[in-house]
Write a structure and sequence with these properties.
Layout: H1 2-14, E1 22-32, H2 40-45, E2 54-57, E3 65-74, E4 79-89, E5 96-105, E6 108-117, E7 130-136, E8 142-147, H3 149-152
Parallel strand pairs: 2-6
Antiparallel strand pairs: 1-3, 3-6, 4-5, 4-7, 7-8
């Protein structure tokens, strides 16, 4: 009986995501013009071709903006209803701004382009003071976290 219960508990935990299942391989924060997203296929189809990347924007109709190109490695199960939460501080205000992006997160590696576009970013020459990215499962469990140096800086 004890062996059967252990087996059932083990099977139930195999599909569940655990905290720390997602590693951030690299994060590149930088400005992108709208033209940087254009590909030749768009000329023929009229649709944006993300080129194998998942692209999410705060203002979907606007391409120009400040982007976080994120490379993730998900060592756990696929997360069809994951959320990526971007918290940041802009140079014009100490107030933390939070943007949430819904996305299906596959098992294995993924490339994401998270854009602060339109009215959500003031201009090309502006860079965030500090930022933090969290990957959350549908139930709110944190699967991964990365933050800039200044976000992690302890208060003195």
């Amino acid at each position: 009986m004890r062996l059967a219960l252990t087996f059932v508990l083990l099977l139930g935990s195999l599909g569940a995501a655990r905290a720390g299942d997602v590693d951030f391989v690299r994060v590149w924060p930088e400005w992108h013009s709208a033209e940087s997203f254009e590909r030749i296929s768009e000329f023929f189809t009229g649709r944006e071709n993300p080129g194998g990347q998942i692209v999410r924007r705060t203002q979907p109709a606007q391409r120009e903006g400040f982007y976080f190109l994120v490379r993730l490695r998900n060592r756990g199960a696929a997360q069809p209803a994951a959320r990526l939460v971007l918290s940041l501080i802009k140079p014009d205000s100490p107030q933390v701004r939070v943007h949430t992006f819904s996305l299906p997160l596959a098992a294995g590696e993924s490339a994401l382009n998270l854009g602060l576009t339109g009215a959500d970013w003031p201009g090309q020459k502006i860079h965030p003071v500090a930022w933090k990215l969290e990957v959350l499962a549908a139930d709110g469990t944190r699967l991964g976290l990365i933050q800039s140096f200044l976000w992690a800086k302890p208060d003195h």
